[in-house]
Amino acid sequence: MGVVVQNVLRADQSIVDRLAVCGVATVHEAQGRKGLLASYMRPIYPGTRIAASAVTISAPPGDNWMVHVAIEQLRDGDILLLAPTSPCEDGYFGDLLATSAMARGCRGLVIDAGVRDVADLTVMKFPVWSKAIFAQGTVKETLGSVNVPVVCAGALVNPGDVIVADDDGVCVVRREEAADVADKAEARVAAEVGKRKRLAAGELGLDIYDMRGRLTGKGLKYV
Amino acid sequence: MGVVVQNVLRADQSIVDRLAVCGVATVHEAQGRKGLLASYMRPIYPGTRIAASAVTISAPPGDNWMVHVAIEQLRDGDILLLAPTSPCEDGYFGDLLATSAMARGCRGLVIDAGVRDVADLTVMKFPVWSKAIFAQGTVKETLGSVNVPVVCAGALVNPGDVIVADDDGVCVVRREEAADVADKAEARVAAEVGKRKRLAAGELGLDIYDMRGRLTGKGLKYV
Amino acid sequence: MGVVVQNVLRADQSIVDRLAVCGVATVHEAQGRKGLLASYMRPIYPGTRIAASAVTISAPPGDNWMVHVAIEQLRDGDILLLAPTSPCEDGYFGDLLATSAMARGCRGLVIDAGVRDVADLTVMKFPVWSKAIFAQGTVKETLGSVNVPVVCAGALVNPGDVIVADDDGVCVVRREEAADVADKAEARVAAEVGKRKRLAAGELGLDIYDMRGRLTGKGLKYV
Amino acid sequence: MGVVVQNVLRADQSIVDRLAVCGVATVHEAQGRKGLLASYMRPIYPGTRIAASAVTISAPPGDNWMVHVAIEQLRDGDILLLAPTSPCEDGYFGDLLATSAMARGCRGLVIDAGVRDVADLTVMKFPVWSKAIFAQGTVKETLGSVNVPVVCAGALVNPGDVIVADDDGVCVVRREEAADVADKAEARVAAEVGKRKRLAAGELGLDIYDMRGRLTGKGLKYV
Amino acid sequence: MGVVVQNVLRADQSIVDRLAVCGVATVHEAQGRKGLLASYMRPIYPGTRIAASAVTISAPPGDNWMVHVAIEQLRDGDILLLAPTSPCEDGYFGDLLATSAMARGCRGLVIDAGVRDVADLTVMKFPVWSKAIFAQGTVKETLGSVNVPVVCAGALVNPGDVIVADDDGVCVVRREEAADVADKAEARVAAEVGKRKRLAAGELGLDIYDMRGRLTGKGLKYV
Amino acid sequence: MGVVVQNVLRADQSIVDRLAVCGVATVHEAQGRKGLLASYMRPIYPGTRIAASAVTISAPPGDNWMVHVAIEQLRDGDILLLAPTSPCEDGYFGDLLATSAMARGCRGLVIDAGVRDVADLTVMKFPVWSKAIFAQGTVKETLGSVNVPVVCAGALVNPGDVIVADDDGVCVVRREEAADVADKAEARVAAEVGKRKRLAAGELGLDIYDMRGRLTGKGLKYV
């Protein structure tokens, strides 16, 4: 506790942006079905799809002091990601902090705790994925750390990892794997175009994916 | 496990459509306050009210193979209803499966598990009532069954039963009782028109429903 | 149980309205970070910010009889607030009761249980903050009380206390403290204007709030 | 609602007792991995393993009137099984009701709600599997039904079905299948004796069940 | 926040002890089915039944400083009761604090948060009813208050109120009502003796409480 | 997925055993209040305190195939630790697997899912810390991995890390830090002896830890 790591490697911004286009479900599949944060992490308003490099925050329960420290570490294209050191739903973050973060180029917040001023944040178009919406205020008494590895909503996030977030939730991509995952995700998107057309035309997945033989082999019976 | 029942009786489509107009709360009351699925079953977007005949799916946790099998069993005016064999929030269903289901005339999905691609599903106007929104991918390894009775979110659903779903949640109506329930539900709707007018004019339920005597009899005291 | 208190003191309506303008998060801070209801109390639709005087209801689980009794006690500018005597998610309240309550000048409902007909309530612009959306019907068999102190979603609410509610949740302000809290909340709002401007211009909270020295004193290390 | 079915078929008591010996996990496997109640159903004290024929109760939330009605329907070797019509944790059952039930030969209680007087019930050796332990009292105002099919903790239970319960939870076996399931369960128990001996001697499941080839075929890599 | 109330009235110790004998379920019924804390408040070990006067603690999340302050306020026959100002499961209390509290005559702890060292506390016979068992450590940075009214697990508790706790959970009795409740609770206990004997002899509650007529009147049908 | 790492470094067994003596709460404090698994991880029976080196398992939901693979990797003094790739409560593990694991010197199981046969496991003295007790059976169809880093109940665990578990829950200690943490934990235990004696004699923590001045400085008021 009490450490701020200042020089964190980020993925190339163009790669980050390619991941944003693919979205959470596709990126998650493309990297081998890993990296999802828990399903309780929900956006405060629908319709946003972003990717950004994580500035991580490890914070004590009910204490948002480190958010101020973390904002100074933000670079254009980053996202704040906060994990409390024990479960907490307090509202660590509101419209003033969002104003400050946006001034530093921040693209949003992922927080395994609560957020408040959500009506203002919606108007400001500052997207947040959180465990709770809760006005409960916090104190500024105890140190945490910034840009250290954290477990957030069940997923390990290293500083500089790429966070992809949309209406399906939040997914983390290792910085080192981001380019490779972007390639694979775009390949999936491309492959889906043809399948979508065939499915829309009434062809069945049973036939497109050639499942009937294997189903029969496992013993499926039609009665 | 491993059974697909192919010829399932449905209620008459005109009856199904009458139930849709009445909505979940009224249908639930009309059939004697039964048939509701658990309150955690929520629509992925607001503003839809539908009714449809259930094609049921009993699926293993984290395995969506049977969804492909079930889609072949869909008829125009049906809804898919999936219950996992043990609790699971994985995302069994996304935009490709929805494309396929819509091509078969499917009106939506009720799933006691997770769904993904919800931004796409919203654009496609494919309504889903689910336990979770979660991008977690699934496998295709283990058989389940299609069109067998299932317990979904605490309610027993037989294949061919009518599912009514709107912003209040999901209700199941036995196929055999659908016509009778539709009659009773429409009668409730009609009866409410007059009451709504009187209440809007300032009359009290205490008087309209003649409750004062019974309240006093039970011992209610005004101080 | 079985008591209706009829003459309840309310805060001055002008004070109530000033609290509405400030919103939940600010009012909660202004009164010393107290009075919040639990974070599971969510609005049925976004975008409303209100304040109103509480007409409280203590009701048995699954029994909405007392809501009818409470509606008679409503005055213009009031809000209904219902706490069940044991945990319950049943739908105590729907569009007919809302019609009746609106006819009496009621501004909304706060209920530590379920609500139904939410599509209608949304159209009617009758705001509700609830624990659940659930169509489950209730009975009218057992007495409760109206305008007695209740614990609702973890907060003590006295009849006549001011309820402030918006997209962040629900906060209760003691009637006797309402004027003082309104003053303090407005002062906070005013103070935030300047800070927001400085933060938007890129100044850091670390500097505006002069935190660097204290952080160093606690041992924060930059690496 | 409001129906008491009096003449319910039970499985032969000797079959019921054979199922008790096998226990929940084995019986569940023997009947094809079905019939389990939700994992939140826990015994109030450890160390009991029973089987019995279900006398089912469908009861309103917070109303235990029907328990009295159900007790009259008990025969020696039965178990009470209560499902509320909407989720409820109230304490429907305590030591007086247990005294009455034991006098009728009742072997225990399965309740998807609360129980109280658990210290007394422990001394009396009256086993209960419940969702909660909660002293909250109930009323006697609204009818439910006795010996109708119910969904209890996610499982369909018909009156006369066999309930198997132990420290692993609760499983329901259809009355008509009880003899067959008992045969299969006993066969599993017998087969496990040899396996247990080999495993205890240090042989690996990988070898006993001949898994290595299939694992390699799926692509498992040792590094 | 930041207040310690020193001279708190307690109920007479003999009355407190009479309530202990009656237990939670009976006391709760005797005072009109009120005063229960939420069902998630569970004892760390079974078999204890106590009553004691509450020394209340309002504490910030993850900060146990006020426990030390509260211990000085303990008198022989008291119990500590802690409510965090926002939901928290951290382990505020362990064997050292219990040692200190026992030295002051403390009978136990009720905490709407976590406790740790439960193996030691079990050996020491220091009973605790808590929301969680969690080793998570706390800090000593922020003030709370001692002996102020708190809402604990959904129930309002004033300093000096009587807490009754056993395997069924926790109930609060207002200090001013303690004598009256003790009388009523003992009357209930006495009345149950005869009923228990009749029930054990096989008489039915349906007859003892003369329910058959009323059930028929409500429409109960035997088929 | 599909990887088994065979040669994993373990901490020295003597260090592991020293950590066991200190217990979860002390070890957690000694390493700076980190490493705890979530509070929902509970022992299936009370009274055990162990430490062991982790053989980690990443397994699909409802598929226990990898447990068999992992058992082959066990060495004397190890513990199995399983994290499903998406949330699951199925019973991955029972008495046969425990028999096999014990034959390999395994000290227990930590599983962020379900366990079954708990009555047998209790008799066998095979300790398990789990999220659920659930008889639900699993399949053997999909690969996972053994001895890879996993996030288990919110904590990152590397293969070979030391797991400390007792009635307070579960804590992970990095293998590389185990010796240092053991030193610090033992120092804490030693320091507590003197404090416990003084507290038992009636001295207050307020005085022993010299808190009064700082409390006054923060503004604490006695009234």
Task: Describe the protein's architecture and organization.
- Six copies of one chain form a homohexamer.
- Chain A is of the alpha/beta class and 223 residues long.
- The first copy, chain A, has eight helices and twelve strands.
- Chain A has helices spanning 13-22, 24-30, 65-73, 95-103, 118-124, 178-200, 205-208, 212-218; strands at residues 3-4, 42-43, 50-59, 78-84, 109-115, 128-133, 145-146, 150-152, 155-157, 162-166, 169-173, 221-222.
- Chain A is elongated, with a radius of gyration of 20 Å.
- The first copy, chain A, starts with a strand and ends with a strand.
- Chains in contact: A-B, A-C, A-E, A-F, B-C, B-D, B-F, C-D, C-E, D-E, D-F, E-F.
- At the A-C interface, strand 1, helix 3, helix 4 and helix 5 of A face helix 2, helix 6 and strand 12 of C.
Q: Biggest interface pair, residues each?
A: A-B, 37 and 37 residues
Strand portion of chain A, in percent?
A: 15-25%
Count of DSSP H/I helices of chain A: 8
* Spans of at least 5 consecutive residues with low confidence of chain A: none
Largest sheet of chain A: 8 strands, mixed
Average pLDDT of chain A, to the nearest integer?
A: 97
Structural class of chain A: alpha/beta
- C-alpha-based Rg of chain A, rounded: 20 Å
Order of helix and strand elements from N to C terminus of chain A: EHHEEHEHEHEEEEEEHHHE
What is the terminal-to-terminal distance of chain A? 63 Å
Form type of chain A: elongated
Helix content of chain A: 25-40%
Task: Tell me the number of strands of chain A.
Answer: 12
Oligomer state equals homohexamer
